């Protein structure tokens, strides 16, 4: 993560390669490239062109372009959080309490709680990060949220243990049906045996 607000073209492209492009690649890999992000890229490019076309000051065009790229990053953060919460809701339909004696589910819930609270704080900080000193405040808050989303995906959503729990859950209704049939047959045999004793 770049440490200060970009002032030169060099700073801007350092920000682009260190912050923007990895997020862009992540969201593109999910096939969820938001239209807003493309608008931000277009607006950033338009501001850059003004340095040559209208001879605007480098610091001025870099400031405007970086603001658009920053908003594009924030869009990605929000999509990744939303995607993570969707995956959490999907896992909630499975009885994950049977994994690792309930530790899996407890850790998953705790991580999702951290993601939710961290995202709320980071969103509030976005509007406060306009000046030189606080430009990266929201990034510093979003970064652990983003990392937790990546962690959730690897450790919980894509866990092989989830597929095991899913299979167990599919077998459970059949097991109950088989047990019901067996108990029904046994009860019928007991009743038949008792009635045959009485006659």
Structure characterization notes:
There is one protein chain. This protein is an all-alpha fold and 199 residues long. The chain contains six helices and no strands. It has helices at 9-29, 35-53, 58-92, 103-126, 137-157, 160-198. α2 packs antiparallel against α3 and α3 packs antiparallel against α4. The radius of gyration is 27 Å and the shape is rod-shaped. The protein starts with 8 loop residues before the first helix and ends with a helix.
Write the layout of secondary structure elements.
Elements: H1 9-29, H2 35-53, H3 58-92, H4 103-126, H5 137-157, H6 160-198
Number of helices: 6
Model regions low in confidence, pLDDT < 50 over at least 5 residues: none
Helix content: over 70%
Query: Quick one: biggest sheet?
Result: none
Q: What proportion strand?
A: under 5%
- Give the N-to-C terminal Cα separation: 88 Å
| Rg value | 27 Å
Seen as an oligomer or otherwise, the chain set is: single chain
Offer a few descriptive terms.
mainly alpha, about 200 residues, about 0% strand, 6 helices
Give a brief rundown of this model.
With 199 residues, this protein is mainly α. The chain has helices at residues 9-29, 35-53, 58-92, 103-126, 137-157, 160-198.
């Amino acid at each position: 993560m770049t440490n200060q607000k970009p002032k030169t073209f060099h700073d801007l492209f350092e920000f682009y390669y260190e912050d923007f492009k990895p997020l862009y690649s992540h969201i593109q890999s999910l096939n969820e490239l938001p239209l807003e992000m493309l608008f931000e890229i277009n607006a950033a490019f338009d501001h850059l062109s003004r340095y040559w076309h209208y001879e605007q000051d480098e610091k001025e065009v870099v400031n405007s372009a970086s603001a658009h790229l920053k908003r594009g990053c924030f869009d990605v953060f929000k999509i990744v959080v939303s995607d993570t919460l969707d995956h959490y809701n999907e896992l909630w339909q499975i009885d994950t309490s049977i994994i690792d004696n309930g530790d899996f589910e407890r850790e998953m819930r705790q991580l999702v709680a951290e993601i939710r609270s961290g995202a709320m704080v980071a969103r509030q900080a976005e509007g406060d990060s306009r000046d030189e000193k606080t430009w990266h405040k929201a990034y510093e808050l979003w970064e652990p949220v983003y990392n937790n989303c990546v962690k959730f995906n690897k450790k919980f959503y894509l866990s092989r243990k989830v597929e095991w729990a899913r299979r167990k859950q599919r077998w459970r209704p059949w097991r109950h049906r088989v047990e019901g049939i067996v108990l029904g047959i046994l009860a019928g045999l007991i009743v038949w045996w008792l009635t045959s004793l009485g006659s």
